């Protein structure tokens, strides 16, 4: 069974899969969903819902209910549109952006207005399209950093992918008006503490600082202003989940020791900005996983914990038995799973094993040729 800390974290992060939540409600609860890698972000929704489809998530994105923007730590996140004014007021920072623009040779006193003019009324533009409109003022990554500077001023967000490539759009065109940032910093800090704790039960100001990118002093002020109370967690959600790279369950706290044994840290965080998707058993990271097309490969940390081939499928399943690889045509057993990996009951999901979880991933992936 999961321990109290992991149980609280799983529940706060919706990994017990409460029924009935749409993409917008899920993002509003989680406060922000890391989205520098869009396929991983979509799989984060899947880990928290047995019924959401790629189409439903993309509908929420295209309808502007959720917005992809530079958020906590200056990293791209999905944020509910109603939370953009106060959350980005706290997390936006142009220091690194201005430095990178100078390194790219993009200088001048008119930079925010330059990108404002280039984007306004044009609809979502790819980097190449925007570079063409800038007529030599910025190229390559300089274009991206120029958009980030416009975002600092509330003038730009990211639009949906176009041909698999990111797009950039004027905030007024996409949201109806430029983002008007919350002027009352204390009010925003109080809201941040309340909302962060709701999605990150059993958290400290140091955790909030690590998640948001704010100084520890500001995080402590946020807790003091909000006086957040502990979240009552009477549930014990367990079972298995396949969480994607950069999932909030890994990124949401400064201390990962309750969910990841230090012996296996390098297997999840190998360096170079890489973060591998993880296998969760009762909230504990027990391995990593990967996918190629609709083939999902499970790689437990310990040989003794490897799911047996029969537990994941038979017939045309193929690949390394000890890593439990399941091909796109494998047939799952109704009660699949691995006792060695801790098959348990899960509120909202019933008794589940790895075969069912892998089948969920494959069904979700089949909903979009881009994933």
Task: Please give a structural write-up.
The chain has 17 helices and 12 strands. The chain has a 4-stranded antiparallel β-sheet with strand order 7-8-9-10. A 3-stranded antiparallel β-sheet has the order 1-3-2. A 3-stranded antiparallel β-sheet has the order 4-6-5. 39% of the residues lie in helices and 15% in strands. Helix 6 (95-103) runs antiparallel to helix 9 and helix 12 crosses helix 13 (216-226). The two termini are 33 Å apart. Mean pLDDT is 86; it is low at 313-351. It has helices spanning 4-12, 23-30, 38-47, 54-62, 84-91, 95-103, 111-119, 127-134, 141-152, 171-175, 185-199, 205-212, 216-226, 248-251, 265-268, 309-312, 354-365; strands at 33-34, 66-70, 76-80, 125-126, 156-162, 165-170, 240-243, 278-281, 284-292, 295-300, 345-346, 350-351. With 371 residues, the chain is α+β, with helices and mostly antiparallel strands.
Name the helicity range: 25-40%
C-alpha Rg (nearest Å): 21 Å
Number of helices: 17
DSSP strand tally:
12
Mean pLDDT: 86
Give the termini separation: 33 Å
Shape: globular
Please write the string of helix (H) and strand (E) elements.
HHEHHEEHHHEHHEEHHHHEHHEEEHEEH
Would you tell me the structural class of the helices and strands?
alpha+beta
Low-confidence blocks of residues: 313-351
Sequence of strands across the biggest β-sheet:
7-8-9-10
Biggest sheet record: 4 strands, antiparallel
Percent strand: 5-15%
